[in-house]
Amino acid sequence: MAGSTPASATADGPPLAASAAASRPLVSPWAEAWRRFRKHRLAVASAVILFLIILAVLFGPLIWTVPIDEIDFRARLQGPSWEHPLGTDDLGQDLLARMLYGGRISLAVGCAAMLVAVLIGTTVGAVAGIASGAVDAALMWVTDLFLSLPELPLLLLVIYLFREPLRALVGPKMGIFILIVAVIGGFRWMPVARLVRAQFFSLREKEFVEAARALGASTPRLVVRHILPNALGPVIVAATIDIAAAIIAESTLSFLGLGFPPDVPTWGRLLYDAKDQLDFAPHWALFPGLAIFLTVLTINFVGDGLRDALDPRRVV
Amino acid sequence: MTHYLIRRLLIAIPSVLGISVILFTVLALAPGDPFEELATNPAVPPEVRLQLRASLGLDDPIHVRYFAWLTSMLRGEWGFSFVSRVDVDELILQRLPTTLIVIGSSQIVALAIALPVGILAATRPYSLFDKIANTLAFVGFSLPTFFTGLLFILFFSIYLDWLPFVYRTRIDATGLAWLWEHVKQTVMPVMVLGLFQGAAWTRFVRSAVLDVIRLDYVTTARAKGLPERVVITKHVVRNAMIPVVTLVALQMPSVFGGAIVTEQIFRVPGIGSLLISAILANDTPVIMAVTFVFACLVVFFNLVADIVYGWLDPRISYR
Fold first, then answer.
1. Do residues B151 and B213 share a domain?
2. Residue A239 pLDDT > 80, yes or no?
3. Domain end residue (candidates: B24, B43, B74)
4. Using one digit for the tens of pLDDT, what is the confidence trace for A144-162?
5. Which residue of A has its CA nearest to B282?
6. Residues A102-132 pLDDT 10s
7. Mean pLDDT within B35-60
8. Which residues lie closer than 8 Å to A305 by C-beta, 6 or more apart?
């Protein structure tokens, strides 16, 4: 968004030693994007923190090998200590281990739901953008309809109706994972669809597309090889923000007690369990809450940095 | 304006119908049978169950069932709650005012934050104030409502012990004391929702004002010698509000999502907490009706946004 640090055209580019002195050094689009991204200090810092969070979640359970479900009644609701760096819950289970494990699920749900949303959104947007006319109008009507659906109540409704059958079909964990990913993705594709459609409308009139068409490229080839790669920048930005939104959506569901089952300690689920013990064990709620907040905040900042980097129109 | 209004109303009807189709499809596609419990009940013979199904029209083709459902919804026959044995519409009407009060006042809070901060930030782009406001806005909408709610309870109710964290409908007080108690218990839910929305809107307002403030007519207004305050309030803000209204309308679904969460945290007896308790109690008629009410509210607020739109930009209503 415009609120970020401006990347100015006069800023120094990457040092290219071998380039000719007079002519402008040849910079690939990705190097240029990276140069712009680096100008956004908060985004770079966020990327580092986010990377650390992902590392911790991926490899943390290998280092911190305390089991997530070891019940120890002597250590109930303890605050942070050397033995339990983030304290314990009401069954004496180690919170650090649970958070590291839950973080995997939370991040996995976020990424998978984002992929679903981007896939549906890009398809709908591309079809609407290339077909135009009646197809476009119909698809956009559906998009607008989905945009005016109340997301959370419908999420809750779908989960209520489909939870049990899916659980019976593929097991409790996998069932609820598929359901949550599908439903969150299925209700978040609309902004991507609109973005892609708008991009297609402007791109398909461009000269290079005309040239490709004149050379006899078929419509699918035009879309996949020529238009889509050029529409990718805003989609990447939207996808990043979507991960954050999906993580919040999953945590919200778990927080309402309608997400993952109790033995899958996602961050939202931990908060749900913690909220009745707030006065005795504030650490139990604070750490998972901070984890969600930090992840979402850093993803949003990285998205903002990517917007500066990949959306050339926005940068002065 | 009247023409425009009627046209918007006519556009709203298909969306309500579309939403009802989606809702009904979800319900119809859902596996499971409302008569499952009867099937396991040995006192009900299978023939009776089949007859019951037929008499209730459960074996009809899906479109027949949809129209039957739709007409009864339109006639206000929303069925009655399995759990509390009360008509669903009565239950919802009881709870709706609380939800609307909480959502309404939180939107006012959000506007009271977003408008001044966004405009100030945009008039001084890249200043220290702008940077701080922007960072805080990011923090604000990255904090999920359920976490802010818990933080508020932790700080204001448990640590400071200023505010109650459970919403009570019956308050044994009269006059000003009654009002004061109500204000005290409404503050936290309203602030949680308002801060979240306010943070998101601040960014909308800022970028919209920033887009408008560079235009030539603003320079003209300044060149005429108008004071800066008049230029901003009379010339810039009105035009900047047009995209903001659209974005605010698009945010309505997430506002209701946030309302459900806050109602659940603070035990506010609104339709959001009704929905959650109905889901936990498998109370299908209530779930369907509340979801439908939420959908209608979203469509209604989109309509309101359209009307504001027409007022802000008369060109739209005359097209």
1. yes
2. yes
3. B74
4. 888 878 888 888 888 888 8
5. A160
6. 888 889 999 999 999 999 999 999 999 888 7
7. 67
8. A4, A37, A40, A42, A43, A44, A46, A47
With respect to residue B80, please indicate whether it lies within any of the assigned structural domains.
no
From the list A1, A153, A301, the residue facing B256 with the nearest CB is A153
Across chain B, mean pLDDT equals: 81
Task: Choose the closest CB to A301 out of B138, B146, B256.
Answer: B138
Domain interval for residue B217: 95-312
Q: What is the pTM of this model?
A: 0.83
CB-CB: which of B143, B203, B291 is closest to A153?
B291
Minimum distance, in Å, between the CA of residue B299 and any CA atom of chain A:
7
Same domain, yes or no, for B221 and B108?
yes
For A93, which DSSP code?
-
Supply the pLDDT for residue B252: 81
And the tokens for B134?
A: 């922007």
Q: Are residues B110 and B231 in the same domain?
A: yes
B31 shares its domain with B108: no
Chain A residue with CA closest to B143: the answer is A293
* Out of A80-89, A236-245, B149-158, least confident range: A80-89
Assigned domain for B103 exists? yes
* A-B contacts (CB, under 8 Å): 150
> In chain B, which residues have their Cβ closer than 8 Å to the Cβ of A274?
150
B223 domain-assigned:
yes
Contact A196, A127 (CB under 8 A): no
Q: Give the number of other Cβ atoms within 10 Å of residue B71's Cβ.
A: 10
- In angstroms, the separation between the Cα of residue B243 and the nearest Cα of chain A is 15
Number of domains in chain B: 2
DSSP state of A67: -
Q: What are the two backbone dihedrals, phi and then psi, of residue A69, each rounded to the nearest 5 degrees?
A: -125, 30
Q: Is the CB of A154 less than 8 angstroms away from the CB of B291? A: yes
Residue A292 and residue B290: Cβ atoms within 8 Å? no
Q: Which of A4, A256, A271 sits opposite B276 (nearest CB)?
A: A256
Cβ distance of A3 and B137 shorter than 8 Å:
yes
Alpha carbons within 13 angstroms on the beta-carbon side of residue B221 total 17
pLDDT at residue number B78: 75
Q: List the CATH number of the domain containing B100.
A: 1.10.3720.10
pLDDT recorded at residue A188: 87
